[in-house]
Design brief:
Shape: globular
Number of strands: 10
Radius of gyration: 20 Å
Strand content: 15-25%
Length: about 350
Amino acid sequence: MRVTRKAGALAVGLGMAGTLAACGSSSDGDGGSAGSKTVTLVSHDSWAASKDVVAAFEKSSGYKVRVLEDGDAGQAVNKAVLTKDNPQGDVFFGVDNTLLSRALDNGLFQPYEAKGSDLVRPEYRADQDKHRVTPVDTGDICVNYDKAYFDQHRLTPPTSLDDLTEPRYKNLLVTENAGSSSPGLGFLLGTAARYGDAGWEGYWKKLKANGVKVVDSWEQAYNEEFSGSAGGKKAKGDRPLVVSYASSPPVEVVYADPQPDTAPTGVADGTCFRQVEYAGLLSNAKNPEGGKALLDFLLGRTFQEDMPLNMFVYPVREGAQVPEVFREFGPQAKDPQTMDPARIAENRDQWVKAWTSLVLK
C-alpha cells in the first residue's frame, strides 16, 4: 500500500543527489547463492546508508552487499510474498507495522534473533515468540504545516486531529490515498485509533466536508501540493497542510542552500501515528549466513546512528544517538497514536474499503 517514498527520500524530491544505491552491486554476479560472499538486501525505494558505513560492514564481515530496491513498501512486500519460494535476496527491509501481518501470515520470513535484539526498546519489538522480524527504525506520520502561510494569514496552525475539521482550516489539508500510500494508511489508522470503530468514519465525513484533498502518493502531496516544501514551492502548491512525517522539517533544513536557522515547516504534534519498520531473513534465502550478518549490522550502533540523516527515521536501539539538527527540527511526537499489529491485521482491509467508499466516491 505504500506507493510513496518515506521521509528519507525527501532529498530526492528536493533534487538532491541521494545515497539510495550506495551499497553497490554484486562482484561475483551470483546474487547471493549458498556459500556466496554476496548478501542481497531487498527493500523499498527509500533505502539509504552512508558508503563508508556499508564499506566497514563489508570489510569486517567479508560479504559484499547488493541492494535491490523494489518500489514502494506495499509493492515490495507483495512481490516478496509471491516470490518467497525463490526469493530475490536474503534479507527484506521495509515492512512496517501497518503491513506486518501480511508478511508474517504468508510465511515471508524464517526465524532469526539478531545480535543486539535485547537492546531494542520494548515498545518497538514484535513477534517475540518466533523472532521472524527485527525492528530497525521508527518514525511518526504527522500533519506538517507551512509556517509562512500561517504567519501571513495570522492563523494559528492546527495542533490536533479535531482542529483539522474546523472551518478556519477549510480547503487547506492534502493527504494521501489510504489504499495506495503508507503515510495515507498511517493517517487513517491514527484516526481509527483516536476515534475508535464508532467514530472514525464520522471524523472523515467532517474532513471531507472541510475540503480535504486526496492524492495518490506522498511525493505528489508533499512535493507538488504542499506550499511549505522546497518542491511544493517550485510546483506552486497551494495546500499549507500535508500528511507527511515528524522528520520532514529537518530535511528542509539539511538540504537547503543556504541552511536556514529554523525549519520553514512545523508539525502538528497531536496528529501523529507511530510507524515501526522491520527487516527479516527471507524464507529460502540462498545465503542465510550472510543474511544473519546483515541483520546484525542493521541493529548495530554504527548503522543505527547513521540512519537519521540518510533515511530520516529514528533508531530503535537503546542509546543510539541522533544528530543535533534532527533532534532540534524533527523530534519524535510526545504522545502519538499507536495500534497493535493484530488489530491492524484484523481491520486494515475493511477500514480501507470503507474509507475509499466514504472519501473517494
